[in-house]
Amino acid sequence: MKKKAAKKFVAGSIVAALSMSLMACNKDQASGEKEDNTSKAGELSGEVTLWTASLAGEPFDTYFKELEKEFEEQHPKLDVIIQDVPQNEMEQKVLTSLTGSDVPDVVNLNPHYMSNIASQGGLLDLTNEISDEANNAYVEGPFESGKYDGKLFALPWYLTTTVAWYNDDHFTEAGVTELPTTTQGIYETAKKVTEATGKPSYYPVINDGNTIMEKMVSISNGEPIVKDGKANLKGNQAILEFFELTQKMYKEGMIPQETAEGSIKTGQELYMAGNISLLEGGVTFLGPVESGAPEVFKASKAGQPLNDTNAPVNVAVMNFAVPAKTKNKEAAVALAEFVTNADNQLEFAKVAGTILPSTKESLEDDYFANPGDSPKGLGMLEASKSLSRAEVLIPPTENSADLRAATKNIFTKNLQGKVSPEEALKELEEEWNKAFEKTGEKVTF
Question: Measuring CA to CA, which of 152, 172, 333, 428 is 20 to 30 A from 241?
């Protein structure tokens, strides 16, 4: 499913200053005034700075020191500087740096930040800069997430994607042997487990509304729910069924009342207490379960997301981009390729413990292909299997906060029976269209 990210603008002086700064930068390049950090023999030299996002402390400090050392050994005339920036400050710091002369050369961004900065002309177009090897190294969905307006602006690094987690003791007690792959199947499974345990069984994660939006795209299975900036929800039978059956499960006690709060953290707490049996989340979900509820952890198993086995699933991507004002373009591109190559991604995944690499070769390693039958191992295996159909399901948009807020509010009202499913979809469609009309975005997803 192809999606075109819409342009997103930041306000005030940063935009004006950035625009003027980039114009000056382009003029300098055109007149040959750009600093040259490559020797006549083609050897990389000078200084290259890389910013990571919220990865300070061990075990990451040691990992990046070794990475820095290895790259400098390959390029003795190059000085690599790796600095960590808090994730919630990254976009603003990159934009601010582009208005001055102290610009990093490689930055760790998510697709939302990447598309916003790229829309300002702040990132280097990598389409013709990366090697053929890099161009063919990455899983398709994550690689596509680095594109904006048809051009490549980022290389994918580490990934997280969704799996289904379930308490196998509860499933065995209920006589359930397979995970459901349809909304009707979720209802039937939840009913059996609730009848066996006497407790709610299914927790649909809402978060800030984004998870429900992603679920809606998945269960639509290729049928756009927004086309050219116009929502079409009322006629979508798959989404209507999801709203109908989640409302019914909530009313019949299969979905706990706490679901109205909606966060993955609340779901985690209920799961650890044995008060739900089935939900979807990333591999990181299991960390607190292992330490806080070891018996539940032992009973935990993982499977594919709870939808059609051919339906797209969401992937969260962290990538590396090169600011347009880099003073060492060749070294920056080489470093971005180096950090995201198969060997280094595999090692980083092992260090982090709960993430996936974005290179095809890394995923073929036994660490992912044969991870063992521990709950975590099963989670990693199922997550890596789903990458073949994974993509960023909701493109970055200027109105994303409005879309998410409307989705959370209206889905929760539907869940609690305050509106009918038909009324909920009608209201949601209206709210989404208001948001698209306000920004003029013509996205499709």
Answer: 172
pLDDT single digits (tens) 336-350? 999 999 999 999 999
Number of compact structural domains in the chain: 2
Q: How many CB atoms lie within 10 A of CB 343?
A: 14
Asked whether the beta carbons of 180 and 305 are under 8 A apart, the reply is no
| 260 in any annotated domain | yes
> How far, in Å, CA of 307 to CA of 301, rounded?
17
Instruction: Give 177: exposed, middle or buried? Use CB within 10 Å, 0-12, 13-18, 19+.
Output: exposed
Q: What is the pLDDT of residue 37?
A: 55
User: pTM score, two decimals?
Assistant: 0.84
Could you tell me if 153 and 146 are in contact, meaning their C-beta atoms sit under 8 angstroms apart? Answer: yes
Evaluate whether residue 232 is within a structural domain: yes
Q: Beta-strand (E) ranges in 267-418?
A: 278-281, 300-303, 313-321, 356-357, 390-391
With residue 109 as reference, give the H or E element that holds it.
strand 106-109
Residue-wise pLDDT tens digits, 103-134: 999 999 999 899 989 988 999 999 999 999 99
Contact 435/406 with Cβ under 8 angstroms?
A: yes
For the chain, residues with pLDDT lower than 70 are 1-42
In this prediction, residue 40 carries a pLDDT of 43
Domain range for 85: 13-160+315-391
Number of other residues whose CB lies within 10 A of the CB of residue 94? 25
DSSP string, 162-207: -EEEEEHHHHHHHT--S---SHHHHHHHHHHHHHHHSS--EE---T
- For the chain, the farthest-separated pair of C-alpha atoms sits apart, in whole angstroms, at 75
Helices marked H in 198-341 = 210-220, 237-251, 264-272, 286-292, 294-299, 329-339
pLDDT of residue 31: 40
